[in-house]
Amino acid sequence: MSEISKVTVTDLVELHQLVEKYRAFYKQPENDKTLNFLDERIKNQEAVAFIARIEGDAVGFTLLYPTFSTVSLSNIWLLNDLFVLETARGNGVATELMDVAESAAKQAGATRVFLRTANDNLPAQALYEGRNWVKDEVFRRYDLVF
Question: Are 130 and 98 in contact (CB under 8 A)?
């Protein structure tokens, strides 16, 4: 069992290290902008992040972005990132992070939480579907990259 806490600016160094490993998982090189990006999101309250620790060591995180839905006329949250170090996988850390994330969104008045994951990330898909998240079969995603 891990200890989960809401990220504050005092956790940014540990969060930064985990985020760079997460970005590497998605084939992104380390970036000098990462720490500043995280610092701004936390300080400006533009994101809600949780960090998981086992015996004091940071082993995972989730990062969520509150937003809105015009269709439902409600607050919704994007669970944008979820990551657990490979050495800590299989210990229920991802499940604990999901529990905290879902609870925080619901407590904040969100009517739903949504996410996306890589098509080949089968362990993540199994986690979400095992928690009764529903795969979107209605909407198609489009991106415009600059």
Answer: no
Cα Rg, the chain, nearest whole Å: 15
What whole-number distance in Å separates Cα of residue 50 and Cα of residue 115? 16
Which among 25, 121, 104 is positioned nearest to 63, based on CA atoms? 104
CATH of the domain at 15: 3.40.630.30
Q: Kindly tell me the burial class for residue 68, based on how many C-beta atoms sit within 10 Å of its own C-beta (0-12, 13-18, 19 or more).
A: exposed
For the chain, what is the domain count?
1
Residue 123 lies in a domain: yes
Long-range contacts of 25-30 (CB under 8 A, 24+ apart): 25/83, 26/118
Question: Residue 61 belongs to what domain range?
Answer: 3-130
Q: In this predicted structure, what is the pLDDT of residue 77?
A: 97
pLDDT in tens, 3-15: 999 999 999 999 9
Name which of 27, 125, 24, 43 is nearest 11 in CA terms.
Answer: 43
- Fill in the amino acid letter for 126: A
Task: Read off the pTM.
Answer: 0.94
